[in-house]
Amino acid sequence: MAQPILRDRSPSQESGHIVKKPRLELDADDSLTVTSQTGTTIGAETSNPKPKEPRHQSNKQRKKASRKRKNKRELPEPCSAEDVISRDVAALLGAEVDKAVHEGSDWDSPLELQTELEVVVSELSSSGDSLSLAPAPHKPWVVLTPLALPGERIRVRIYYNSRLYSRADLLEVIEPNNELRDMSRVKCKYFGECGGCQYQMLSYEKQLDLKRNVVVKAYKNFSGLPESSVPEIQTTIGSPLQYNYRTKITPHFELSKKRKDEVKIGFNKVNTKFPIDIEECPIATEVINKEYGPLRERVYQNIATYKRGASLLLRESLKIPRSQDPLPQIKSY
Q1: Would you tell me how many other CB atoms lie within 10 Å of the CB of residue 140?
Q2: Rounded to an integer, what distance in angstroms lies between the CA atom of residue 198 and that of residue 126?
Q3: How many CB atoms lie within 10 A of CB 156?
Q4: What does the alpha-carbon distance between residue 286 and residue 188 come to, in Å, rounded to a whole number?
Q5: Which stretches are annotated as coiled coil (predicted)?
Q6: When comparing pLDDT for 25 and 124, which is higher?
C-alpha cells in the first residue's frame, strides 16, 4: 500500500472503551481502503479524483495554443479538404512519398517562404488548384498554385509549406496553354482576384470533364471499395446556363478594430481568408443580384450594430403553383 494520506489519532468513547478511529490509506491502484489500527480491513471503495476545472484562457493564450497546434506535424483529418489535397499530392509524387517518409523528410520543404521560382503545371487538383513539381535541383516536392492550367509555365511565390507540398501565389503565366486558356470566356471583372471561381477561362465542356474527374478520384480515395466494385462514372450533366445560375450565395464581411470605416462585403481573395469588396456576382441569378445591392446598403447603414462581422445568405426559391388537376387517389389495401 501507499503511504497514508490521512490519519486521525483522536480517541472516541464507545462502550466505555477508547477506540481509535480508522485511518485512510491509498492503494497503488488508487482505491481508497479503510483500515483499522490493528490492520483489519473494514471496507473499500473506489474514489476518482475530481477533474480540475478548466482555467480561463486569455486571447493571447488561446492564440499561442493555436500556433502550437498548427506547428505540430499532424496528418490531416480524414476526408477533410486538406486530406483531399494530400492525396492528390501523393498520387503525383508516387513512390517518392514512401522514400520521404522513410527518410523522415516529408515535412522538410526545400522551398523557403517568399521564394520565387518557375514551374510547369502537371495537372489540376480536386480543389481546382494546379499541381507542379519543384524543378531540379530541388528534391521531389509539389507546388500548389491557383488559376493555372496543365502544361503552362508559371512564375510563383511560396507563402506556405506543408507535408510534401507548398502553396504559392501566381505571379505570372509565362507560357500559357492556348488550347485550354481563353480569357475571352471570362465574364466576371473580379476573376483572378476573387477566390470563388477558377475555371472561367476554360470551355464549359472541359469544366464538366474536370468535375467528373473529381468524382472519380473521390470514389478511388474515400469509398473504401475495390476498384472492380466502383461504378463507371458517367459524363457530367451540363446546365443550360453557364452564368446567372446559382440560386444561393453567402457574401460576408469582417470588421477591423482599427479601420471600421473600411468594410468590404464579398468573397475571400485568392489564397487568403480576407474578403474583397464585390458588388455583383455573375454566377448568381439575376434575382439574387437585384437584391444583393440593397442588402449591402442596409449593412453599411447599420454597420455600428455589428461587432465582428457577418455572413449574408441570399437564396432564390421557386414557388411552384399547385396544379388545377385533382390529386391522384391513393388506394389502400
Answers
A1: 17
A2: 12
A3: 25
A4: 14
A5: none
A6: 124
User: How far apart (Å, rounded) are the C-alpha atoms in residues 87 and 151?
Assistant: 21
pLDDT (0 to 100) of residue 186: 96
pLDDT value, residue 122: 98
Whether the Cβ atoms of residue 150 and residue 130 lie closer than 8 Å to each other: yes
To the nearest whole number, what is the mean pLDDT of the chain? 82
CA distances from 210 to 127, 132, 207 (A): 10, 17, 5
Closest among 104, 95, 173, 161 to 134, alpha carbons compared: 161
Angle between helix axes 96-103 and 81-93 (nearest 10 degrees) is 100
Percent of the chain with pLDDT over 90: 67
Residue 328's pLDDT is what?
59
Asked if the structure places residue 136 within a domain, the reply is yes
Cα–Cα distances (Å) from 116 to 129, 170, 329, in that order, read: 18, 10, 71
Cα distances (angstroms) measured from residue 205 to each of 59, 61, 123, 153, 238: 49, 51, 17, 23, 8
Range of the domain at 82: 76-178
- Length of the chain as a residue count: 333
The span from the CA of 138 to the CA of 122, in Å, is 16
- Between 10 and 62, residue with greater pLDDT: 62
Per-residue model confidence as pLDDT tens digits over 38-61: 343 333 333 444 444 455 666 666
Residue where a domain stops, chosen among 178, 196, 228: 178
Is 185 part of a structural domain of the chain? no
Quick check: is 324 in a domain? no
Q: What total of structural domains would you count in the chain?
A: 3
3-class secondary structure, 251: coil
* DSSP code, position 16: T
**Mean predicted confidence (pLDDT) in 214-236:** 94
Peptide bond into 137 cis (omega under 30): yes
Question: What's the pLDDT score for residue 308?
Answer: 86
Q: Residue 66 is inside which H or E element, if any? A: helix 59-71
Q: How far is CA 128 from the centre of its chain?
A: 15
Residue 105 inside a domain? The answer is yes
Among candidates 256, 280, 285, 284, which has minimal Cα distance to 266?
Answer: 280
